[in-house]
Write a structure and sequence with these properties.
By secondary structure, this protein is α+β, with helices and mostly antiparallel strands. Helices cover 55% and strands 14% of the residues. The strands form three sheets. A four-stranded mixed sheet has the order 1-4-5-8, with helices on one face.
Length: 393
Amino acid sequence: MLNFDLTEDQIQAKKTYQQWVDQYVVPFADTFDEQQETPQSLINQMAKDGHLGALVPVEYGGVGLDPLKWGLFCEELGRSSASLLSLVTVQSMAIQTLVKWGSTQQKEKWLPKLATGETIAAFGLTEPSVGSDARNIESSAVCNDDGNYVINGKKRWISFGATATLYLVFVQLNNMPVAFLVERDMKGFTAEPIKGMLGFRSANLADLSLQDVLVSEDSMVGKPGFGFSHIAATALDQGRYSIAWGCVGLSQAALEASMDYASKRVQFGKPLVEHQLIQEMLTEMIVETKAARMLCMHASFLKSSGEPSLIMETSTAKYYASKAATKSTNSAVQIHGANGCSSDFPVQRYFRDARIMEIIEGSSQMQQIIIAKAGHQEFTVQQRERNAQSNRG
Ligand SMILES: Cc1cc2nc3c(=O)[nH]c(=O)nc-3n(C[C@H](O)[C@H](O)[C@H](O)COP(=O)(O)OP(=O)(O)OC[C@H]3O[C@@H](n4cnc5c(N)ncnc54)[C@H](O)[C@@H]3O)c2cc1C
C-alpha cells in the first residue's frame, strides 16, 4: 500500500537538508553560475557533511541512505542548484554501480573513498558523435599480451569531469560494450573544462580524452558485453531517479519565487497574484510540482521494495518531472516579466537549468520510447490475462 505522507523521521531529514542548502548553496548559487564553476570549498563541505557518500553502505563508511531520503535530499539540491545536484547524481551513479556490479576488491578499494568524498566520480558515456544511441559508442579497449587493456577514445559533456578523480568509462571491447574505472592521473588521460553552456553552468563539465590509457583487468566493472545492459542501465536508473527528484525541487523553487514576486508586484492597481491569468500559471505550477513529487514518491516506494517495474516508473518520473520543471520555470520567467530575464533574479537560472533536464540521463524522446515500450508490454500481459480469465469463465 502506498503512503504519500512522510514519517516524522523523514520530515526531520528533509528539514536538515533544507537548512544545509539554505546555508551553503542558496546564497551563492547565482555567483557559481556566473563564475561557471562550483568551488572546491563547497565540494569539501559536502564531503565533510557526508553528502557525497550518502548512498555508500554503512559497512564501507557511508550513510546508507534509503531511496526516499535520498530523493528528499536531491529535491533540496534541485531547489538550490541544479549544477550541484549533478555532482551528487554522478557520484551516486558510480556508487550504485559499484555496489551492484563491482568486485569485492573494487568495492573495498573505492567505496570508502567515495564515502568520504576523497574520491569524486564522474560518468563517461557520451562521445562527440554518440549521445542517445549510447550502445554504439566508438571508444575502444584492446587487450594486450599481459592481459591489461589499452583504452582510446573521447568523452564529451562529462559532469564534474573537470573535478573528478575517478571515471566510469564505457568503451567497446571486441564490439562488446564494457565499463572500466579510469583514474585521473593515469598516463594518456586528460580532462578539458567546457564553458559557455546554457544551463548547469557550474557543473564543472569537461571533455575527456583517453590516449593509450593502460588499465588492468581489475579495473573492468562487470563483464564484457555487460557495459550497456547492466552497468550503464544501473547507473542511468540511479541518475534518472536523482534528476527526477531534483526537477521537483527546481519546480518548487520556480513556484516559490513566483508566489513571492506576484504577491509584491502591483500592476493595474492590484498584486499580480490577484490577476486571474497569473493565477492560471501559478495553479499549473502547483499541480505539476505536486504530481511530479507523487511520481517520484511512487518510484522511491518501488526502489525500496526492489520492484522490477522500477525502471519504467523511474523513466516516467524523470519524463514528467523534467517537463514540469521546464514549464514551471518558463512560467516563472513570464510572471517576473523583464526582471525574470535579468540576473537580479534566480528564475532565469532555473529556466536555463530546467532546459538541460530534458536532455540529460536520456532525453525526453528516449524516455518516451522506454515508457511506450514498457506500457505496451504491460498492456499485452493484461490482455492475455483477461482473455485467459474469460476463457475459464
Ligand atoms: C549539462 C550536461 C551534462 C551532461 N553530463 C553528462 C555526463 O556526466 N556523462 C555523460 O556521459 N553524458 C553527459 N551529458 C550528455 C547527455 O547525456 C547527452 O547530451 C544526451 O544523452 C543526448 O545526447 P546528444 O546530446 O548527443 O543528443 P542526440 O542523441 O544527438 O539527440 C539529439 C536530439 O534528437 C533526439 N533523438 C535522438 N534519437 C532519437 C530517436 N530515436 N527518436 C526520436 N528522437 C531522437 C534527442 O532526444 C535529442 O532531442 C551531459 C549533457 C549536458 C547538456
